[in-house]
């Protein structure tokens, strides 16, 4: 398969995964909000479904923007590296979804597409990226390692940040 097609699959498959999350997250948000211990309330404020959808929409749009404005055919281009980085983060995200499903004692939003779509695509694409030198093997290890804190800190913070942005905008307007 052509490199450009594979790189465009990053935003497309991210969209498929994020649609599953958006469809099934309403059932989890209330449980999430009510399970936060009081002493962590300031650090982990309640998240609304609207905040979650906004955050997922931004996270879905970014790979499309990168793919659209990048020369994905160019060897070693920033766009290629960024798309490979996103897919490395999606690989780590598979394990975050599996952990969440175990903690919930069953289904967690996004776990089906994480395992059935993102896991096999990530392994195949990332292996090819190293084999064809889209990125070096060292860079790949670093990208996957960076994916861990991004999944643990940055992704959960997106809905909280989106809520703060909405609050600021409503105060200004």
Summarize the helix and strand pattern as letters: HHHHHH
Distance between the termini: 49 Å
**Assembly classification:** single chain
How would you characterize the largest beta sheet? none
Strand content: under 5%
Count of domain modules: 1
Say how many strands there are. 0
Specify the number of helices.
Answer: 6
Structural class: mainly alpha
Helix content class: over 70%
Molecular shape: globular
Provide the residue-averaged pLDDT: 88
Q: Could you tell me the radius of gyration in angstroms? A: 17 Å
Low confidence ranges: none
Question: What does it look like?
Answer:
The chain is mostly helical. The chain has one domain (3-172). Helices cover 78% and strands 0% of the residues. The chain has 6 helices and no strands. It has helices at residues 3-24, 26-34, 49-68, 78-104, 111-131, 137-172. Helix 4 (78-104) packs antiparallel against helix 5 (111-131). The N and C termini lie far apart (49 Å).
